[in-house]
Design brief:
The chain has helices at 17-23, 26-37, 108-124, 141-153, 166-180, 190-194, 239-244, 253-259, 261-268, 273-276, 280-284, 305-322; strands at 5-6, 13-15, 50-53, 57-64, 71-80, 86-95, 101-106, 132-137, 156-162, 184-186, 199-202, 223-226, 245-250, 277-279, 296-300, 326-327, 334-335. With 337 residues, the chain is an alpha/beta fold. The strands form three sheets. It has an eight-stranded parallel beta sheet, with helices on both faces. Strands 3-4-5-6-7-2-16 form a seven-stranded mixed beta sheet. The protein has a two-stranded antiparallel ribbon with strand order 1-17.
Length: 337
């Protein structure tokens, strides 16, 4: 505690879930992610996830001090099993120069926005520069947001989508056929979506945590996007597919290698996952050359606080420009030590 306390020079902004929905902009989020991942790497700025838990409550904190931008902070994911499972997300942003609280942001929609934006940046670095046939496994929010993002960075010629519910995959096909202006077909099984595709998007969780694709569905020179195995218990890709991969690009190297059930299972099976996995930073900075036309390339994401912070900063900047959000009547003091 210090008595040498200074009141904030500017009161913090609060962005609700509705504000984020209004402000969400994929191109801006993609630009923020690309800037963050083309900056020099310093692991001290992004230490990974911090967990606290009891039998009833759990808290996951994802801090980051991005090299890019003017803000730093953390996203907290807060869960309780007191009445089923209820989860909330809060992003706190601070000024790098003054340590003042700049904004509090409801992180519910930010998670989906930053995940899709990061996937777009990662996929753009490893897909061929030609018209692509895309196989989509899943038709929910993640599948929708990711296909929208991928269409901004890649040339999509055709899409095949599978979802276990026929009505959902038909609705997905109708929506994206109209919005993208290309053939989008609902297919009766996951193999029909993935087989022969240039780009396979895995965006559906299996209820029993078994892989949602099979290795022999994947073409020898395909790109696979995997976003659904973000904890050690979750599975999305079979170990045989990881064994066939020439390259795995990770949004966070340590988190993907040690926090994804797919990679842990492959390592346990004796597959050299370390030797074929590189960071997205290394690819974007040109430290690792990618042959986008040959071999299987996998983009693997577990999420990172870095992504939340830079996308939330872009949202706050947009909110200030557009007059969106609620300026809080009070702030927190800063002290000199």
């Amino acid at each position: 505690m210090s008595t040498d306390a200074e009141a904030p020079m500017r009161l913090p902004l609060f962005l609700t879930d509705g504000d984020v929905e209004r402000l969400a902009d994929l191109p801006s989020a993609i630009a923020a992610i690309r800037a963050a991942y083309t900056a020099p790497v310093d692991d001290r700025r992004n230490p990974g996830r911090i967990f606290a838990e009891s039998r009833r409550e759990w808290l996951r904190v994802m801090p980051s001090v991005p090299t890019s931008g003017r803000l730093f902070g953390a996203k907290s994911i807060n869960g309780s099993f007191a009445d089923g499972l209820r989860v909330s997300y809060l992003i706190s942003l601070f000024d790098k120069a003054t340590a003042e609280l700049v904004a509090l942001v409801d992180g519910n929609r930010v998670t989906g926005l930053r995940t899709a934006a990061t996937t777009a940046v990662g996929a753009a670095a490893i897909v061929p520069r030609r018209a692509l046939t895309v196989g989509v496994i899943g038709s929910g929010f993640e599948a929708q947001s990711h296909l929208t993002a991928l269409a901004l960075v890649a040339d999509l010629a055709q899409v095949r989508v599978f979802s276990p519910t026929p009505a959902n995959r038909a609705a997905f096909a109708a929506r994206f056929g109209a919005s993208l202006g290309i053939p989008v077909d609902a297919v009766p099984d996951a193999g029909a979506a993935a087989s022969g595709a240039d780009l396979v998007l895995c965006a559906a969780r299996s209820r029993d945590e078994t892989p949602t694709v099979q290795a022999d569905w994947i073409d020898d020179h395909a790109t696979v996007v995997s976003i659904g195995s973000t904890t050690p218990a979750q599975r999305e890709l079979p170990i045989e597919l990881i064994d066939r991969a020439d390259l795995v690009v990770a949004d966070g190297l340590d988190e993907v290698l040690h926090g994804s059930g797919d990679m842990l299972a492959a390592a346990t099976a004796g597959i050299d996952v370390v030797g074929r996995t590189v960071s997205l930073n290394a690819v974007l900075l040109g430290e690792r050359t990618v042959d986008a036309d040959h071999g299987i390339r996998i983009y693997k994401s577990t999420g990172a606080g870095l992504q939340d912070i830079v996308v939330a900063e872009a949202l706050v900047e947009a909110a200030r420009r557009q007059g969106v959000g609620t300026e809080l009547p009070v702030g927190i003091v800063t002290t000199r030590k």
